Amino acid sequence: MTKPTPDPRHTLTLRDVSEASGVSEMTVSRVLRNRGDVSAPTREKVLEAARALGYVPNKIAGALASQRVNLVGVVIPSLSNMVFPEVMTGISETLDGTGLQPVVGVTNYLPDREESVIYEMLSWRPSGMIIAGLEHSAAARAMLGRAGIPIVEIMDIDGDPINHAVGISHRRAGRQMAETIIAAGYRKIAFLGTQMPNDFRAKKRLEGFEEALGKAGLTLVDREYYSGGSALLKGREMTATVLNRTLDVDFLYYSNDMIGAGGLLYCLAQGLDVPGRIGLAGFNGVELLDGLPRKLATMDACRLEIGKKAARIIAEAPQASQVEELFPTLEPGDTIRRA
Q1: This prediction's pTM
Q2: E-strand spans in the chain?
Q3: From the centroid of its chain, how far is CA 41?
Q4: Which end of the chain has fewer CB atoms at under 10 Å, N or C?
Q5: Are strands 189-194 and 251-254 parallel, antiparallel or unpaired?
Q6: Which tens digit of pLDDT belongs to each residue from 272-299?
Q7: pLDDT of residue 64
Q8: Is the pLDDT reported for residue 2 higher than 60?
Q9: End-to-end C-alpha distance for the chain, whole angstroms
Q10: Are 268 and 296 in contact (CB under 8 A)?
Q11: What CA–CA distance (Å, rounded) separates 290 from 136?
């Protein structure tokens, strides 16, 4: 017998699923919350009835007793930056099947906006939060520290985590890149960076980079900063500015691959010998740029694995704080001379 289709103006409830499946509301609740001991045939009957009806559980109502919803807040600085989609992939893949759903907030590298996004997300009482970086306003740190949920700061471990942290040491990454450049014989080195000064991870790489230069008796011969986002065109413009201003530069170290790729295209268009006359390196290991005429030297920032590990911590909700360091691989590509 075909059961009547509910009025579309009627908000579906557990009772509707109960009547459609022929089992009690308590059993329906257990199945939909994936709780309790329910036989496989009964579970399938309930799920099929819910699918047929188009029933979506009211997680807010269901959270009144637990004071939590099955959402995981993910706070990142940018959606246009190609780094973070891979992080999100790792988070989504790992949370799949756990009942937890990531929701994203974007800060545009602005501390005040990050504070606002964190406030709004915590007001929904999520089950956990994943946040890019370790640097936050005092108010943001206070909110996160008192949230009573797993907090995972990602991409960086050079600092003081609120709860958990998963990432790389950007200072170590900067030192490693500088040591490789110096070993290849470059001496007149310039740095080019975007989102300065709010890209704290790029600042830490620069600190490590300059530390290694100092140990070799070197200093940067030039630097060019831009407060906006990364783009190929901006990389070309910044590179032109530095090379026209400091004629003896023999290496350009970029805060990320995108502006590094723009710089590479500019150098090749000018007929410069890369990597003989001038070398270049970026950061992040963005696969999208593999089609360039030369493979840009870079470092893989372990983005996918960072997303997976952060989500695993949220899902497992360990009592003890964890700091997981990953180690990026330096890829010399075709833009650093072979030592």
Answers
A1: 0.81
A2: 71-76, 101-106, 128-132, 151-156, 164-168, 189-194, 222-226, 251-254, 279-281, 298-299, 323-325, 330-331
A3: 41
A4: N
A5: parallel
A6: 999 999 999 999 998 877 888 999 999 9
A7: 58
A8: no
A9: 79
A10: no
A11: 34
